[in-house]
Design a protein that fits this description.
Order of helices and strands of chain B: EHHHHHHHHHHHHHE
Chains: A mainly alpha (306), B mainly alpha (355), C alpha/beta (498)
Number of strands of chain A: 2
Strand content of chain B: under 5%
Number of helices of chain B: 13
Structural class of chain A: mainly alpha
Oligomer: heterotrimer
Radius of gyration of chain A: 19 Å
């Protein structure tokens, strides 16, 4: 039983990583007032570009780098529609998701279409700074990316949002862009930059799936994790640390399902119940947390001077 | 007072020049195909040849023309479904899940209706699919109007949950033991939609889709409920002020939306596949959002957009067979067309004036 | 020495000219009023100076040097600060965060240093503000002080104030004026946008008058009387309407409001124990500084907002607890306070006209388009609306939108007409038309509730005047006993008359 829980905790950190990366990315864009529904497509695109580039170059880090670049560009594309053109963010975001999903599948079919076995690469190795300590070592056996996400990116995101001038501008733009404009700060530049940062993090989340967790790319690789990330951002009230707890709740239920399946228990209910459980939990969390959610006041509102 | 020299300038306008309307789709088409030709070159194909197979060839033969109508059927249904919701300002992005809810109802009843004659079985299929879609749409709609939970997120999450329900059924109780694939047993022949044109796949589903377009048109232009829907969608405070029950209007529109998406699932099960399968929809629910937007939330626009997207789907298969360009060219083209059109619509907000 | 000079500024919005070759100059150490009616182009001119708009032609000089101002960044660099009418503050952030927004060279913020330097600045300029307070918890007067502090903290030598007194009670106005006088003594120059004559003559040195986007001229304040200024500012005598009809017929009480209380959107008390009676054939004016519960009163009286306590009785029928639609059918007619919240811009004139009474125009759920169009055509003629039935509302001018709303409400011959701020933002002709319609409603026997911040309007039209202060009715006067001074005292909450 003890082993079960320790394995569960270890798996929780692992499966939370990609969702947390995407959710932190989305936190940045939403804090600046843009709902990026391109998130699901950008994750998928990041997973594909990372896999493809790593496969071609033989370097996982190069794959990750290109995935992040592709995410930055996708974020800027979202900016073209939501910031410069000011069109409906739901529709343009969904359009970008469909576009990037199609592009990834197009490229995947073109490059790997003829093969009889699905292509794969040697994924990132896990590291363990505490390999000698008995119980802890099971939990600390993680990917470097997981360490970076939890120990660097989350605190850094919180620090940027709350302790820097740039973060002050982001929070102000998401709440009252007029005030920021009147203070002589470029609203568009802030929004574009958060979309770029957000896109990069979201794509990194996708690349984690293909380059670390699976070492492969498939149609179902993201399967709604982007949408979950959006729910987690609301649940976390747009605060990085709380977003992290949201991601862990989702990751925990998901990991539980993985552990139960791996144990091969004959359960009276189908294993899909456990797969669907995190989504149900997320909806419930949204209902509970959503009552006090303080949405950025300018979310979904394009900014125009006249 | 002295008169100053008048200059040509771009000014914002509420009354777009009459010529922008027909020009936009044309420019959008040209822009889309210029952008997507990059992909075609990547696939080492000739863009002009590709566009021939993509857009012209499917219109050339009777068989392929009917296939366009077949492909447009689920798109028309989800497009109409999304329009009902979006016109009321309710962002139902859950047509995908609602489609599968309808498909489950159709497969479940279809497998059980071997003793029921077609004249009864087919209406039962359609109605139950509608009800199943309504039921699946009910949860996010109630969360929205009772607890103000954002419907975009909940409808998206419900799509994922539905995917696992389908998977659970196909790997569990409904799995056809004689098939190597996770799929249900075949539905009763009496529950299958009849063919409109013999020796083709074109079936009753297309007529049902056209009927929903007609219903959408009547509701939106001829009924007081349609006017209420538009008022709520275009100006919630004003609608509330005029004494319209905003929440009730949103709830009804959201449920109709879910129901029609459910019928799309019925049409795919009863008209095309005859089984429940996990890959019933390659994202028809999301494409429905694109179609509703391109059709500017208007019945005729939605019908035209879904027929054109049917052509793109059919054409993408022709291209794939003839030239080896991956079939996902269709999906990319559809999304690109949406984004290019959104950009183009801004042209309508300006006109050139001499002042 | 002119710190600011604006020459021949012209600005178009679409095809409408908002500023037509306007000249303006500001001397060092003066308070200079920009006086004019709503829509005269005052705010536009100053938004150009502050870089929020870009002029189509004309030039700006600061301290004798021609400058290009493309965004607020440029004007801030030239030591210009502006307090806009809708405050440019971020409510969920602290005062200190708002003040340093856009004005800190450090990438990493030092909150302690920021807070103490903001506190120092506040003390230096005599503005009483806690830098740690969350802006969303501040009163309107305090928020305005934050805005002024923001401008001063950026070393502004020119301060533009857009209608700064509109949201203040008289005591706060006094404090503001005291602050301004002190700042001017220190060498600051102030542009004071206003349409209130007494304030302008009270505080300013010079006045530039704008009318219909054109500058009428600049005068020294001490040379001018109120009447002279009014004559310059207003194209024609404003009030063509005539209140005094032959005789008010024997009237009976129509609407009885008893101990009415309600909450605002934040859940705070907005109406407290309101008792009012409206009779047939009378206009009851409701005066008060904006934000004292007038909006919530109007909303509660037409059923859009629920009351927490009390009773609304119209002609003997209790209305509270019923839906907005039932209020309407019972004879309560309301013109919305915000025109754009009363109409759906993307729908047509005829659809908007039918929206409130759809049951009259439909049969088994199907719309009778012919009847809707006929109805619209009749109202368009009767109310002189300059539009066709099929035009979208958003293409209409403000005056015509207001006529559509009037037509929709008045065509049903309501027993009570609630008119909150019915002439706000309208040109003179349209405003007169609206006032005339309200008088006609009274003359046919309806009870009219006129809610307005414009005391002249209240005094000209009302038969009785109630004054609201902090959600309460602090006095009800007969029109014959009322004058601006008495009303002003009541509006400030200084005295109470029942």
């Amino acid at each position: 039983m003890e082993v079960f829980f320790i394995n569960l905790i270890a798996a929780t950190f692992r499966v939370s990583t990609p969702i947390l990366l995407a959710a932190i990315g989305e936190t940045f864009t939403e804090r600046a007032g843009i709902l990026n529904l391109g998130i699901e497509g950008i994750m998928f695109f990041g997973a594909f570009v990372g896999f493809f580039a790593a496969d071609l170059s033989g370097s996982l880090w190069f794959g990750l780098f290109l995935a992040v670049i592709s995410g930055v560009l996708s974020g800027l594309l979202m900016g073209l529609f939501s910031v410069s053109l000011g069109v409906n963010q739901h529709v343009s975001g969904l359009g970008i998701t469909v576009l990037l999903t199609g592009l990834s599948l197009f490229g995947f079919r073109l490059q790997y279409g003829g093969r009889s076995t699905p292509p794969s690469i040697e994924p990132f190795q896990q590291i363990n700074p505490f390999a000698n300590i008995p119980i802890l070592s099971t939990i600390t056996q993680q990917y470097l990316l997981t360490y970076i996400t939890f120990l660097v990116i989350v605190p850094l995101a919180g620090w940027i949002l709350y302790r820097t001038r740039y973060g002050l501008h982001i929070r102000a733009v998401g709440d009252n862009p007029e005030a920021v404009d009147a203070a002589g700060v470029n609203v568009y530049a802030i929004r574009y930059s958060t979309l770029a940062i957000g896109g990069g993090l979201i794509a990194a989340g996708g690349a984690f799936l293909s380059l670390a967790q699976l070492g492969a790319f498939s149609h179902g690789i993201v399967s709604g994790r982007g949408w979950v990330a959006i729910a987690i951002v609301i649940f976390g009230n747009w605060i990085p640390l709380k977003v992290m707890f949201g991601a862990l709740i989702f990751g925990g239920t998901y990991a539980l399902q993985l552990r139960l399946q791996a144990m091969g228990l004959k359960l009276p209910i189908p294993y899909e119940t456990f797969l669907a459980l995190p989504y149900v939990v997320t909806i419930i969390a949204l209902v509970v947390a959503g009552r006090n959610a303080s949405y950025p006041a300018a979310l979904l509102k394009p900014y125009r001077r006249e | 007072m002295e008169t100053t020299k008048k200059k040509l300038r771009l000014v914002k306008t509420n009354n777009p020049s009459f010529w922008t309307k027909p020009l936009i789709p044309v420019l959008a088409l040209v822009g889309t195909f210029m952008l997507t030709s990059g992909l075609i070159l990547w696939a080492k194909a000739n863009p002009f040849e590709t566009y021939y197979y993509f857009l012209i060839a499917p219109l050339g033969s009777r068989v392929s023309f009917l296939e366009i109508l077949v492909k447009s059927t689920p798109l028309m249904l989800t497009g109409v479904a999304v329009t009902f919701a979006f016109a009321t300002g309710y962002y139902n992005i859950g047509a995908e899940g609602q489609l599968y809810a309808g498909a489950i109802a159709a497969a479940g009843l279809g497998m059980a209706m071997h003793a029921v004659p077609a004249i009864l079985a087919i209406p039962i299929m359609i109605i139950s699919g509608f009800i199943a879609g309504v039921a699946w749409a009910l949860i996010p709609a109630l969360l929205k109007i009772k607890l103000a939970v954002d419907e975009v997120v909940t409808t998206l999450l419900m799509n994922s949950i539905m995917a696992y329900i389908v998977s659970a059924l196909l790997n569990g109780p409904w799995r056809d033991p004689n098939s190597g694939w996770p799929q249900s047993q075949e539905i009763s022949p009496t529950a299958m939609f009849f063919k409109i044109v013999p020796r083709s796949r074109l079936n009753l589903g297309f007529i049902v889709a056209l009927v929903t377009v007609l219903i959408l048109w009547i509701v939106m232009t001829r009924t007081s409920f349609g006017l209420k829907m538009r008022a709520v969608g275009l100006g919630k405070p004003a609608a509330h002020f005029a004494g319209i029950n905003v929440n009730k209007t949103i709830l009804i529109a959201a449920l109709i939306s879910g129901g029609i998406a459910g019928i799309a699932g019925v049409a795919e099960v009863a008209g095309i596949q005859f089984h429940l399968i996990g890959e019933l929809s390659p994202g028809y629910g999301y494409t429905g959002v694109i179609i509703a937007t391109l059709g500017s939330l208007n019945a005729i626009g939605v019908a035209l957009a879904s027929l054109f997207f049917g052509l793109l789907d059919a054409g993408a298969q022709t291209v794939s067979r003839a030239l080896g360009v991956p079939v996902y060219l269709g999906e990319v083209t559809q999304a690109t067309m949406l984004l290019v059109t959104l950009g183009m619509l801004l042209l309508q907000r300006y006109k050139i004036r001499r002042i | 020495m002119n710190v600011v000079e604006m020459n021949a500024i012209t600005k178009y919005f679409g095809e409408m000219v908002a500023n037509d070759h306007v000249d303006f100059d500001l001397r060092k150490g003066e308070i200079h009023a920009l006086l004019g009616e709503n829509g005269a182009g005052k705010t536009t001119l100053m938004r150009i100076l502050y870089g929020l708009y870009k002029q189509d032609s004309g030039g700006v000089q600061i301290n004798g040097k021609a400058v290009q101002i493309n965004s607020p960044k440029d004007s801030i660099a030239n030591n210009i600060g502006m307090v806009t009418q809708h405050f440019a503050l971020v409510p969920p952030m602290t005062v200190a965060e708002n003040v340093i927004l856009g004005h800190t060279n450090r990438f990493v913020l030092d909150y302690d240093a920021a807070e103490s330097s903001v506190a120092d600045a506040a003390r230096k300029y005599g503005l009483d503000i806690n830098p740690r307070a969350m802006v969303r918890h501040l009163s309107v007067g305090q928020r305005q002080r934050v805005e002024i502090l923001k401008a001063l903290y950026r070393n502004s030598r020119v301060l533009i104030l857009d209608e700064p007194t509109a949201v203040l009670i008289p005591q706060e106005v006094d404090v503001l004026f005291e602050t301004l006088r002190k700042l001017v003594d220190d060498g600051l120059s102030v542009v004071f946008i206003s349409h209130k004559l007494d304030e302008v003559t009270n505080i300013t040195n010079r006045i530039t008058i704008l009318r219909d986007g054109k500058s009428i001229g600049t005068v020294d304040t001490c040379d001018m009387s109120h009447n002279q200024l009014a004559a310059l500012m207003i194209r024609q005598a404003s009030f063509h309407v005539n209140n005094k009809i032959a005789e008010i017929k024997k009237s009976r009480s129509l609407l009885n409001i008893k101990s009415l209380s309600a909450l605002d959107d934040q859940g705070l008390p907005a109406l407290r124990d309101i008792n009012l009676t409206v009779h047939t054939g009378e206009i009851l004016g409701i005066a008060g500084v904006s934000g004292n519960g007038q909006k919530q009163l109007a909303e509660t009286l037409c059923g859009v907002r629920n009351c927490t306590e009390g009773e609304i009785k119209l002609d003997g029928i209790t209305l509270n607890g019923k839906t907005a639609g039932e209020f309407t059918t019972s004879g309560m007619g309301r013109i919305p306070e915000d025109r754009l919240e009363g109409v759906v811009g993307e729908l047509t004139v005829q659809e908007n006209l039918a929206l409130e009474h759809l049951y009259q125009f439909s049969n088994k759920g199907f719309l009778n388009h012919k009847a809707i169009q006929k109805h619209a055509n009749e109202l368009i003629v009767q109310y002189q609306i300059k539009a066709r039935p099929g035009d979208r509302i958003r293409t209409l001018s403000g005056g015509n939108v207001q006529k559509v709303l009037l037509a929709r409400v008045l065509s049903t011959q309501p027993k009570i007409v609630i008119a909150p701020q019915p002439t706000r933002g309208l040109d003179v002709g349209a405003a007169d038309y609206v006032r005339q319609q309200l008088l006609e409603q009274r003359n046919r026997g309806a009870g009219v509730i006129l809610i307005s911040e414009d005391l002249d309007e209240i005094l000209a039209l009302s038969d009785r005047i109630a004054v609201m202060y902090e959600g309460k009715i602090v006095g009800v006067l007969d029109a014959s006993e009322a004058n601006p001074e008495r009303l002003g005292l009541l509006m400030s909450g200084a005295v109470k008359e029942m």
